[in-house]
Amino acid sequence: MKIATFNINGIKARLPRLIEWLEETQPDVACLQELKTSDETFPEADIRAAGYGAIWHGQKGFNGVAILARGTDPVERRRGLPDDPDPAHSRYLEADVNGITIASIYLPNGNPVPGPKFDYKLAWMEQLRLHAAGLFASERPVVLAGDYNVIPTDHKDDVFSPTAMAADALTKPESRAAFRRIVHQGWTDALRARHPAGQLYTFWDYQAGAWPRDAGFRIDHLLLSPLAADRLVDAGVDKDYRGREKASDHAPTWITLK
């Protein structure tokens, strides 16, 4: 079972790239972030024509998350976090697909630092931690997939330049500590479980020639509960899709489970 996460950066603008990726790689589940479209304008017909059922939690012009499932409809469990610091933002969607609980997550960016956006990021991460603890305690196979907007370490395998990113909310000690508090509940970082060393960038900015220079970093993560981690076969990044015409600034990131 192949489960992927893909920050599409505007589903209407990137729809040809999304359909192309679905047809070429055929993930069983695709978690999307940054739809930037309302519930009413989500392109359901195009998704279904590609062979996928879908649920989505949209927001006009900003945010937005979706879960697609090949040949079936995801069974929605929750939209939005309990006690979300700002429920007007569409950042969390959770569903059951073929016996696995899967969440699509778009964590706040948090810039500029310091400021209310950074405070909101940390507050949102704390609510995610609390909800994740309940999912972990359920002892079911769970995958928390999405754009976490956190670079876990300063290692060159996670970020092209720690110095260039030092002032960014994605690398701040508070952001990393909040991410670790989630992971240390017992979740497995799937990409690093399969690839303990080696560059695994998932994002390259549109600015400053980041893609041609390979100046990227890793912010898209799939965290697995023990029952899901026990079934982990492989994980990777579909890096080539970042280089296609009118691509998202993220690359699809995926796992395969037995």
UniProtKB/TrEMBL annotation:
The cross-references to Gene3D superfamilies, in alphabetical order and at most eight, read:
Endonuclease/exonuclease/phosphatase
Name all Endonuclease/exonuclease/phosphatase domain ranges.
4-250
Q: Kindly state what the record says about how the cofactor is bound.
A: Probably binds two magnesium or manganese ions per subunit.
Keyword terms of this UniProt record? Hydrolase, Magnesium, Manganese, Metal-binding
Q: Which Pfam families match?
A: Exo_endo_phos
Q: Where is this site: Interaction with DNA substrate?
A: H250
Which cofactor is recorded for it? Mg(2+); Mn(2+)
- What is an example of a GO molecular function annotated in this UniProt entry? double-stranded DNA 3'-5' DNA exonuclease activity
User: This protein's superkingdom?
Assistant: Bacteria
Q: Where is this site: Important for catalytic activity?
A: D220
Q: How far does the signal peptide extend, from start to end residue? A: none
Does the record's keyword annotation contain NAD? no
Q: Which residues form the active site?
A: Y106, D147, H250
Positions with a binding annotation for Mg(2+): N7, E34, D147, N149, D249, H250
Site for Transition state stabilizer, residues: N149
User: Which family does the similarity line name?
Assistant: Belongs to the DNA repair enzymes AP/ExoA family.
**Protein name in UniProt:** Exodeoxyribonuclease III
Q: What organism does this protein naturally occur in?
A: Edaphosphingomonas laterariae
